[in-house]
Amino acid sequence: MPAAITLSDLSFALPDGRVLFSELNISFIPERTGLIGRNGTGKSTLLKLITGELSPSAGKITISGTTGVLRQALEPQPGETVADLFAVREDLARLARIEAGNGSEEDFAAADWTLPARFAEAVAKSGLAASPETPLAELSCGQRTRAALAALLFAAPDFLLLDEPTNNLDREGRAAVAELLAGWRGGAIVVSHDRELLEGMDAIVELTSLGARRYGGGWGAYEARKAMELAAAEHDLADAERQLDETRSKAQLAAERKARRDGAGARKAAKGGMPRILLGAQKRRAEATAGDQHKLSERLTGEAEEAAGEARAKIEVLQKMKVSLPPTGLPPGRTVLVLKDIVAGYDAARPVLRGLAAEVRGAERIALSGPNGSGKSTLLKVITGALAPQSGEARVEVPFVLLDQDVSLLRRQDTILENFRRLNPKADENACRASLARFRFRAGAALQIVGSLSGGEKLRAGLAAVLGGASPPQLLILDEPTNHLDIESLE
Questions:
Q1: How far is the C-alpha of 297 from the C-alpha of 290, rounded, in Å?
Q2: What pLDDT digit, counting tens, does each position of 442-478 carry?
Q3: What 3-state class would DSSP assign to 301?
Q4: What CA–CA distance (Å, rounded) separates 128 from 472?
Q5: By CB neighbour count within 10 A (0-12 exposed, 13-18 middle, 19+ buried), where does 63 fall?
């Protein structure tokens, strides 16, 4: 049977009752499929349902073939090496025993002599310089992602399940992921907001509040088709709403004409110019005609409302995020940050940063770039005081906030609103609600528990808590701020 993953009437609800999706029906075949959608639509959850990590609220998942998963975050265990990630530690140890002359009959029987060459090839394709003995803890987040992807390709499953594979990677690493996927001939479901990576997909599946929709081709083809669909849907909705307005206007006009006729008849009857029996017959005919007109108006209005509802249902209700930030009050020439001869790292014998010196003045926007493992996150930890330098001095002279990739300034057990009030203690309830609404956390959405949010929603909540108050920090430090954000939020 050919490899395939089929979702039949699939539904899933969060523990708080919020429905992520319902009655999804879609199949994935051996092709590269980009899975896209706004933050919170359930993309990562869908991968966890496919792997069996979560159980659906309703519906069925049928899998023909094997799957391999790449997670968004890889936390190494003590002593874990690259060989452990590839699940080849014992196999390599067996070959080492044989080569040392200590191999048993069982070792010779189970030996895979192609393993070292296949391992080296997989690591080289990922662009990673590592041996089987390299501890995972010594690798940066981006290097661990490369190693995990290489291990996944090494296992050669029928389907790759990749959750944000280019997060934490430098440009060279992202190019390596794209190149690896370009050469992949099995199935792949890739959750991503990386438009360059999505351009190389064979198909795009979009998750929205309306369900799942498949589009053939990569990102460019999806964007063009989506624009055409949206324009057509908006045209149909405008026609339906115009027809509804016309129907309601006609019904109102008919009711007003009837009221005028009834008034004229009542005035004529009051003058006594018509026999009572004729007046009664005329009244009954008028009431019958009015009843028929009322039923007709109700039917036509109902049909017009139904047509408008159907047209409206084809357009997803989107809440655009547009934020106006209050001034920070930072004087143009004020010293913000001073770094003097910084030497820092996690191993005193091998510091990552050596003799680093810099000074930041006034309202500057500075991009900190460099390949994975060059010490970008280490420098941010030194600046914020999370890591003491081995020598030198780091001094921040204005109020600052760090938004890291885990948005650790937010308490996971608290609601978004509770976190906002804790970080902005001078803001009253109305100010808190208004600020959160600007970041698309309106009404009940502000009462969501932070621990239940998707990665993108959590970062947006962190931005709201930091930038939504009356006095934003004069220094904002962002560590990979676009990781986990949907494309609309990226823009």
A1: 10
A2: 888 899 999 888 777 888 899 899 888 888 899 999 9
A3: helix
A4: 40
A5: middle
Contact present, 188 and 30 (Cβ < 8 Å): no
Mapping DSSP onto H, E and C, the string for 338-401 reads EEEEEEECCCCCCCCEEEEEEEEECCCCCCCCCCCCCCHHHHHHHHHCCCCCCEEEEEECCCEE
Residue 451 is given by DSSP the state G
Q: Decide if 26 contacts 62 (C-beta within 8 A).
A: no
CB atoms within 10 A of CB 188: 25
**Which residues, given as ranges, of the chain have pLDDT below 70?**
71-73, 261-294, 296-297, 313-322
Reported residue count of the chain is 491
Residue with tokens 């049928």: 62
275-303 per-position pLDDT tens digit = 666 556 655 665 556 566 667 667 777 77
Instruction: Give the separation between CA 230 and CA 215, rounded to whole angstroms.
Output: 14
CA 440 – CA 460 distance, rounded (Å): 9
Q: Are 460 and 358 in contact (CB under 8 A)?
A: no
Write out the H or E segment, with its range, that includes residue 463. Answer: helix 455-467
pTM beyond 0.85: the answer is no
